[in-house]
Write a structure and sequence with these properties.
homodimer; alpha/beta; 8-stranded parallel sheet; 14 helices
């Protein structure tokens, strides 16, 4: 299943693992890369030293290429951007803004650059700035989201840019990969399905939330009180936050109630955790090794595309 | 392009036209059916006499099968349900609830029944009640919407029921049709693309709003003040309504401000009209005859699926 994205990244299968803060660490990234996908370590808000250790640990587990996701709003973004170069990582994905100021340095160092974009305008801007590919992410994705959906966004981005387009949001099986190809993508980014990978180091509680979620068990908070909506599983906590917003809480109050909530979920705190995951969690029903997840996706998609 | 849905409805192409209140009238329905799709007249809140005339007018324009969409919250739903039988229509689609109480009579009369469903639970319930197929509609659709997306909803509904699944929401070209097939659907329902059909009798102003819309020019109102979210084009009016909601307006105030707004849009009132349309309006750039729209979709999808 060779596409422009497998060529660009030097990987076997057109599957990029999502860069999920607090979640995408070395064990998951190495497992995905080892299985032929593009594994990613998430920088999140972590200091460079922490991520340096993560990268070293991943290198000890696999000799396949992997990358780093940089959340551009992080106070450590500059340090992480340099770390990508120092560590000679194969590629970098970016979220929450434009990585324009880093692109030249990355490209000089041979790092492939794949910004996550929520709309056509940013996609075009990223390509003008030198991005090697763009990841068009629909609002079915977990965590911070835009307002477009994968079905609508991917073909419009594909029409607008002349670099490879990766589809993200709402994809967890081979049907999703095959659909993404039809929409004009040459690969997919998958986050939520890998939450239920055996190698993913989140708490069993978090995995259980994802596995038990049905098609309607998804909530977007932050649409009312802030300008940064976030998707996660429907829990007592997330519903309470949504109610608080509907009652007109301030953005400060919202931030105060939700600060640190993702880390709490990773650690298994049901009452105060924000269990970020995509809308497609409803279709994720089983914990498996990352290699089995990837094999299954590729086999199903291959069958459909024949 | 024969599928279970073309067989079920006796149509040439697996494309059902959306039942858009105030919009889907005889000329559009007849044009879509004549071109090989499944045309639909929308009952909306109209009295049965009005719809009876619409049906007569459509029958005068085409001898191909067409159907009626019944909005179940309409005060005239009972009358329209009977009209479907009296007029020996080929099929009926339903929105805004469960048509369970009508299904037996429709089936006895040979009318095929296709409820629009926003989630897996209602899909299963409809199939138990005797639905011949279900239309799984993602929140990228225009008008009243649920909270799931086409990409996530379609495969989950396809896994849950053993009747044909039609994908709706976010589909406006052959890429969307091909993607829907990959996700497990055997046909699509298309609304927004037909807003820009030559035969669609909305004002030129409305068509211009759809054609000029970019990927980000979509707004969902009613999520905060009501339990019935509605998607439409981003205009001064729809943004004002959203702001009103964010400031905590009551559902009564919301209803008062928006009552009749769709009809105003149909008539070309930019200032007070609610220009309901799907998120995929960003990809609709040209007015064409319905037959050309359908031909283009089928040709593109056919090429992709080869």
């Amino acid at each position: 299943m060779n596409t422009k994205i497998t060529e660009l990244l030097g990987i076997k299968y057109p599957i990029i693992q999502g860069g999920m803060a607090w979640i995408s660490e070395h064990k998951l990234a190495a497992a995905v890369s080892d299985a032929g996908g593009a594994g990613l370590i998430a920088g999140g808000n972590a200091p460079a030293e922490v991520i340096e250790r993560e990268i070293a640990a991943a290198k000890a587990l696999t000799d396949k290429p992997f990358g780093l996701n940089i959340m551009l709003m992080s106070p450590n973004a500059d340090d992480l951007a340099q770390l990508v170069i120092d560590e000679k990582l194969a590629f970098v994905t970016t979220g929450a803004g434009s990585p324009g100021k880093y692109i030249e340095a990355w490209k000089s160092a041979g790092v492939k650059v794949l910004p996550v974009v929520p709309g056509v305008t940013l996609a075009k801007r990223m390509v003008r700035a030198g991005a090697d590919a763009v990841i068009a992410e629909g609002c079915e994705a977990g965590g911070h989201i835009g307002e477009n959906t994968t079905m609508c966004l991917v073909p419009q981005v594909a029409d607008a840019v002349d670099v490879p387009v990766v589809a993200a949001g709402g994809i967890a099986d081979g049907r999703g990969l095959a659909a993404a190809f039809m929409l004009g993508a040459v690969g997919v980014q998958i986050g939520t399905r890998f939450l239920a990978a055996q190698e993913c180091q989140i708490s069993q509680t978090y995995k259980d939330v994802v596995i038990k979620a049905k098609d309607t068990d998804s909530v977007v908070t932050g649409r009312i009180a802030t300008t940064h909506p976030v998707r996660g599983a429907k829990t007592k906590f997330s519903r309470a936050i949504l109610e608080l917003e509907k009652c007109g809480c301030s953005s400060d109050e919202f931030e105060e109630k939700t600060a640190g909530a993702l880390k709490k979920a990773v650690d298994g705190n049901v009452d105060e955790g924000s269990f970020m995951c995509g809308l497609i969690a409803g279709m994720v029903n089983e914990v498996k090794p990352a290699a089995d997840i990837i094999d299954e996706i590729i086999r199903t998609a291959g069958g459909l595309l024949k």
